[in-house]
Amino acid sequence: MRTIVDRDCLLGHGLALIRQQFQLPGDFPADVLTEAKAVARRPIGEHADATQVDFVTLDPAQSRDLDQAFAIEPAGSDLLLHYAIADVGWFVAPGSALDREAWVRGTSYYLPDGKVPLYPPILCEGAVSLLPDGERAAVVFTVRVDPAGEAKLDGVKRARIRSRAKLAYETVREDELPAGFAELTDRVEAAELARGAARVEPPEQEVVQDNGHFQLQLRPQSWAERKNAALSLATNLAVADALLQAKTGLFRTMGKPQDWAVKRLRHTARALGLDWPKPESLEQLERRLDPERPADAAIMLAIRRASPAAGYEPYREGAKPWHAAVAATYAHATAPLRRLADRYVVEAALAVANGQPVADPGVFERLPDVMQKADALSGQIAHAVIDLAEAVVLTGREGSTFDAVVTDVDERGARIQSCSPAIVARIKTDGLKPGDALRVRLDSADAERRTVQFSIAS
């Protein structure tokens, strides 16, 4: 969810309760704010001069916590991606008040009415962010992308950069992007297809109000968002390979949906009127989904919910960490303003690329628990927000009937998915089995408790 029109304050009140329920932190402690103010003035030193490189950023228009800037240049048949990452490690010292608070938070938490940042805004939206208002400290990854789309880390260095433009997903034109952008992203996407990757990027759910009624809508990613993600993917893959070869690091892992989850998805597809032949695998289905089509968008959201939670694993001798969605060994390095672990992965990659020892390799043993707890909390918040949105959307429609299908049955009853709007709920079993189509009546919608209740319509 990104935008909300909430004239009756149902969502606003519900979001305040979510913040209270999950005990999300408010303001930063005084010592953290004092330290942030001091380090925000730290001069950029020990950084090479890369201000002559034409870096740009590409993010949502309203974003100010800009982790990444990029430039592209040809190198024979290869393309060089210069990917500048905000140098959080230059400002946040291990053991400092900022560092201790970041270990408590783990990540930034995003709600429709605002975020709970990992670092104080004076840093994440100011001195450390790669805004186009002056020189900024960055760690620049040079990633070589060959004609087949394979990415390799050519070098990493600390550098002073100056972004030339803050481009926005919503308004960017192709002619504003660096030469080679389209070719590079096409190569990365072709390599994904060749690996058998099946990254699902479902549309975001948005709640809007029209003539006093709330509507739950799906907003697909723009072409600029999809293409921009390829740059981060190529960099993270190259970093993961370099760290794996150096026998150190922290890796992002994820398994495939289990067989029972795929069966549930087939029932969901049926409810949405999608043609999914039995011989076709889930990966094959994913590749032909179009987020611009409402039914496709709904099944993409269902696939995301059905996929196992991603995790973090430190390097282990003889093990090859794997991320099923990207079909490769993968790491997170490109969002240190928003994720604690990325700062340490960036520092490790910098050391490895320059033949230096990793300062604290033991940190990768401690990070998984912190990051997985933060991820779990993010997931709980996201589910609570969606539950709230669904309840608000259905408020006032009690007694209405909807077409639905049973997606699975367990000891808690039957899980159903209504076809329009695309809402998931539970209902008493009453002999139902997966795949059953039925007509359900909305008995109640409680935005305060974030619950909806359906029964079988007579």
Question: How would you characterize the overall build of this protein?
Answer:
The protein is α+β, with helices and mostly antiparallel strands and 458 residues long. The chain has one domain. It is 34% helix and 25% strand. The chain contains 12 helices and 18 strands. It has helices at residues 10-21, 30-39, 88-91, 97-105, 121-127, 181-195, 223-245, 259-271, 282-287, 294-306, 340-353, 363-394, and strands at 48-49, 55-59, 68-75, 78-86, 109-111, 114-116, 136-145, 151-161, 163-168, 204-210, 213-219, 250-253, 311-314, 401-410, 413-418, 424-427, 437-446, 451-456. The strands form 6 sheets. The protein has a 5-stranded mixed beta sheet. A 5-stranded antiparallel beta sheet has the order 16-15-14-17-18. A two-stranded parallel ribbon has the order 2-9. Strand 10 (204-210) and strand 11 (213-219) form a beta hairpin. Helix 6 packs across helix 7. The longest helix is centred in the C-terminal third of the chain and has 32 residues, at 363-394. It is globular. The mean pLDDT is 91.
